[in-house]
Design goal:
Blueprint lengths: L4 H8 L31 E8 L11 E2 L2 E2 L3 H17 L1 E7 L2 H13 L7 E4 L4 H6 L6 H5 L8 H4 L2 H4 L3 E2 L2 E2 L19 E4 H7 L4 H6 L5 H11 L1 E3 L2 E9 L1 H10 L7 E2 L2 E2 L9 H14 L15 H9 L3 E5 L11 H5 L3 E4 L14 E3 L5 E3 L7 H11 L9 H11 L4 H12 L1 E3 L2 H4 L5 H8 L4 H17 L1 H12 L6
Parallel strand pairs: 1-4, 1-5, 10-13, 15-17
Antiparallel strand pairs: 2-3, 5-16, 6-7, 8-13, 8-14, 9-10, 11-12
Length: about 475
């Protein structure tokens, strides 16, 4: 065991704060340690809720902790569960729930004073609201003797844990040591159909990046080359995207982010008083409404799933999309496109040629601990054991090498992908509410002058920063102060 007996005993003795004085005292499991340094949970049944938001037709139970059934990784995950049960003398029960009914079951149970599980493996969209309601245990304050949230290789880098922050603590962690899971959770990389690029005679964007010319001007030229019109009918478009995704990525490609100023987290909205914003806004509206609008497949822009379908059927050479639709449990691109690339968004004039940025609205796979669990610290211990690196993937380098071999056609794509992930920014869409994305979304859906868009949303953005965004940045600055230096 990686944890000592003394550490575990201290963890097991921690007092759990309940919602009201009328709640029963926490039941602490009696560890049968004797003279041994081994941990024995004496057959304890640790219940794990599993529910992911897919956005497509995938069903709840078609995976083992995020890995599609029948795959080698699913087998490794199942073996890890079995080994943990044997090593700790416990039982791990996976309870799969459809996403549409998960939240009502989860919150309804907790509101009634009943724990729905000992920990949950879920999409992170509602972590903020769950933490605000007092439904989750704090990782640092309550589980810190078991879960080391500063271990980024195991539990996620600070920029990705931002979506799990609230007030003064972290309320979720990410399965970062396992292949694919956090790597299929963010957005919205630019994906390229390399076969279509070749057919229409356009340039490989990988080579343009290596030449230091992968910028907006070059991209605009490539979109025109990729758009094929015959007899008034567009056979192939340059670009397809859910328009807000496209807008956010182009803003990011010029160094602009909701909570970022000069690349650092900020308690003030990064869209205001920022010349780089106006340059990016002009590029967004050029593609969406200007001379390049004929290169943009507008018909499907409102639905990310339909966008993915259109890309997979060869309707466009380029697409911005969530990585979960590229590969992983819901990865249509990897299953349906014979030869694809993943590239950085071409850069604007206010950043370096090798600048990279990504956006995420949540992590598909995150881990939370319901505060009412009778076996909170035991569950954390079991979770800590389960999500140790899998055999053959003991280091981050092992995971990256696996990705190079299995997820990409070219190692340059893997480098680009990781660069985007390492610089991904949380957009607070599910924490603050959909209108927190009003500014980039309106840029891409209305030909309104950018200055007017900023002015009309200033009060709204101030409110968001005074509430949800501020609540989360408060904890982020407390837990990861180095990010703000």
């Amino acid at each position: 065991m990686k944890k000592t007996v003394v550490c575990l005993l201290l963890a097991a003795m921690m007092t759990l704060t309940l919602f009201s004085c009328s709640q029963p005292q926490e039941e602490v499991f009696d560890l049968d340690l004797g003279e041994s340094t081994e941990v024995n949970f004496d057959g304890l049944d640790v219940k794990v809720l599993v529910s992911f938001f897919s956005g497509n037709s995938a069903v709840a139970g078609d995976n083992i902790l995020g890995y599609p059934l029948g795959t080698g990784l699913a087998e490794l995950a199942q073996n890890r569960i079995s080994d943990t049960e044997k090593d700790l003398n416990c039982k791990v029960t996976l309870d799969y729930r459809e996403w549409g009914s998960f939240s009502s079951y989860f919150t309804g149970s907790l509101a009634a004073g009943i724990s729905p599980s000992d920990f949950a493996f879920i999409t992170s969209f509602d972590i903020y609201s769950y933490a605000k309601a007092g439904y989750l245990a704090g990782i640092s304050t309550q589980l810190g003797s078991v879960i080391d949230y500063r271990d980024s290789d195991k539990w996620g880098a600070p920029n990705l844990l931002e979506c799990c922050c609230y007030k003064d603590d972290l309320y979720g962690v990410l399965p970062a040591a396992w292949p694919d899971l956090i790597y299929s959770s963010f957005g919205y990389p630019l994906v390229v159909n390399e076969d279509l690029i070749s057919v229409v005679g356009a340039n490989d964007p990988r080579e343009l990046y290596e030449q230091g010319v992968w910028n907006w001007n070059t991209f605009n030229e490539e979109l025109e080359k990729c758009t094929v019109v015959e007899s008034g009918e567009t056979l192939t478009y340059g670009l397809t995207a859910h328009s807000p995704y496209m807008s956010e990525m182009i803003l990011g490609s010029n160094g602009v982010g909701l909570t970022r100023v000069n690349g650092k987290p900020s308690l003030e909205c990064g869209f205001y008083n920022n010349p780089a914003f106006f340059a990016a806004a002009e590029e967004v509206q050029l593609i969406r409404f200007g001379d390049l609008s004929y290169t943009y497949y507008l018909e499907v822009e409102g639905d990310p799933v339909t966008v993915t379908d259109s890309f997979c059927t060869g309707k466009a050479c380029y697409a911005f999309m969530p990585t979960k639709y590229i590969f992983g449990v819901y990865g249509d691109v990897s299953q349906k496109v014979d030869n694809y690339a993943v590239v950085r968004t071409p850069v604007g004039p206010d950043v370096a040629p090798d600048h990279a940025a990504g956006i995420y609205d949540g992590m598909t796979c995150s881990i939370v601990f319901p505060v009412l669990s009778d076996y909170l610290n035991e569950a954390a211990y079991v979770c800590n054991e389960i999500f140790n690196p899998l055999p053959g993937y003991e280091t981050r380098e092992d995971v990256i090498e696996y990705m190079r071999r299995n997820n990409f056609f070219d190692p340059r794509d893997c480098d680009a992908f990781l660069d985007i992930l390492d610089h991904a920014m949380y957009n607070y869409f599910y924490s603050a509410g959909g209108d927190v994305r009003n500014i980039p979304a309106t840029l891409a859906r209305s030909n309104t002058p950018p200055a007017e868009i900023l002015e009309s949303n200033e009060g709204l953005m101030t409110n968001h920063f005074d509430n949800a965004v501020g609540d989360m940045l408060e904890a982020y600055s407390l837990l990861f102060p180095e990010q703000f230096e």
